[in-house]
Amino acid sequence: MKATAGSGYHFSPGSDTLQINFEKADFQKTKIGMIGKIGGRFLLGQRFTLDFFTGLGLSNTNSSYKNHLNPVPKKSDPFFEGENYTVGKRLTAHLSFGLRLGMILWQQKDVTPAYIK
Q1: Number of folded domains in the chain?
Q2: What is the pLDDT of residues 11-61, one digit of tens each?
Q3: Distance (Å, rounded) from C-alpha 27 to C-alpha 5?
Q4: Is 80 inside a domain boundary?
Q5: Which residue of 18, 93, 95, 105 pairs with 12 in a disulfide if CB–CB is 3.0 to 4.6 A?
Q6: Which residues contact 6 (CB under 8 A, 6 or more apart)?
Q7: Residue 22 CB neighbour total at 10 angstroms
Q8: Which residue range forms the structural domain that includes residue 61?
């Protein structure tokens, strides 16, 4: 992904407390990842299902900012910052889990002849 970022900031390379504020900058990000998932399904009565899953994965992200307009360094607290604000390469672990309630709208009738059952 390549884009021009409007007024914003990013963390200085090699630092998680020094941010660079700018009016405009060119932004580039490449992210490749994979998550493996496994799950199951329970039948609740005749019409409802309960699906569950969990998964674990990794992603490799590389982001950069160039051509800053009016860069200003500033100290910051990066506790809840998103991945777009960190410059450089990084490997990130991902955890996935979920639960879904479903409803069976129709079922195929069993057409097996009685003498085979």
Answers
A1: 1
A2: 888 777 788 889 899 989 899 999 999 999 999 998 999 999 999 999 999
A3: 6
A4: yes
A5: 18
A6: 23, 24
A7: 19
A8: 2-103
